[in-house]
Amino acid sequence: MKYLTTLLFVLLVVAGCARDAAPAPTETAVAIAEATEEPLAASKDPTQAPDSISPTSEPTDGAQATPVEAVMPSPTTSPVASIQGESKTQCSGLPTPANPEGPFYTPNTPERANLIEEDLGGEPIRITGQVLTTKCEPIAGAMVDFWQTDAAGEYDNVGYRMRGHQFSDENGRYQLETIIPGEYPGRTPHIHVKIFAPDGGELLTTQLYIPGVSDQTPDGIGGFRPDLLVQELPSADGWRQMAFDFVVATDG
Ligand code: FE
Q1: For 179-233, what is each residue's pLDDT tens digit?
Q2: Among 42, 95, 97, 176, which residue carries the largest CB count within 10 Å?
Q3: 225 C-alpha vs ligand 1 centroid, how far in Å?
C-alpha cells in the first residue's frame, strides 16, 4: 500500500511537469509570429506610403500635400539642369544644314588649327565647338577641313593660304583660329567647311557665317542662312570668341 501511494505521487508529479512544459512551445510560436510580423510591417512601409498620402493626409491636414508636390518636380528638373551644365551646348539633334561647296575647294590641305599668317591682316576670331551625332554624342577623330578668303575677299587657289584641316578630339571638339573673311562679289562673308568621318566618308559640306558681318550683307547666291551663324561669346584670352557645333547624320 505504501508503494502504491508513492507510485501515484510520482505519476502525479510527472504529469504536472508535462503540463508545465507545454507553454514553452507556445512562447516560441509567439516569438516566431512576432519575428515574421516585423518584416511584414517593415515591408508595408513603402507600400503604405503612397496609400497613406491620399487617405490620411487629405482629411486630417493638408501638410502632406506639400511634400507630394515638392517631390514631383525635383527628378525632372535636376537631370536637365545637369546635362546642360556639363555639355554647355544646346544640341537639338537636328543635323546642321548643308550649304554649297562652291568652286574653290582644294583637297589635301595642311593639318593646322590656326590659319593666321604674318601680314595677313583682318580681324582675328576663334571658333570652337563640337562635332556631334544626331543623338548629340561627340564624334572623335572627325576631319574638319576649313577654307575661306583672306580679308580682301580672295581665295588662294594655288597654295593653301587660309586653308587647313584638323581632327576633332576625344570629346568631338575642334578649334579654329582665323580671321573674318572678306567679301567677294555675289557673296556675303563666309567660311567653308567639310567634315569627314573617321573612316573618311564625307559627312557634311556647309558654310559658317559671322554675326554682325555676314547677316548684314545680301547674299546673291543664296547660301546665307541664319541657322549657320556662329554664336558670339564673351571675349577670351584677347580673342573674339565664337562657337558652333556641327550635328551630322551618321549611318551608325
Ligand atoms: Fe566661298
Answers
A1: 999 999 989 999 999 999 999 999 999 999 999 999 888 888 779 999 999 999 9
A2: 176
A3: 14
> Residue ranges of the chain with pLDDT lower than 50?
1, 3-87
Distance of CA 148 from the midpoint of ligand 1 (Å)? 6
What DSSP designation does 30 have?
H
Cα 182 to its chain centre, rounded Å, is 36
pTM for the model: 0.65
Q: How far is the CA of 97 from the centre of ligand 1 (A)?
A: 16
- Beta strands 241-243 and 124-133, pairing class: parallel
| CA separation for the pair 246, 92 (Å, rounded) | 11
Taking the C-alpha atoms of residue 208 and residue 195, their distance in angstroms, rounded to an integer, is 13
Length of the chain: 252
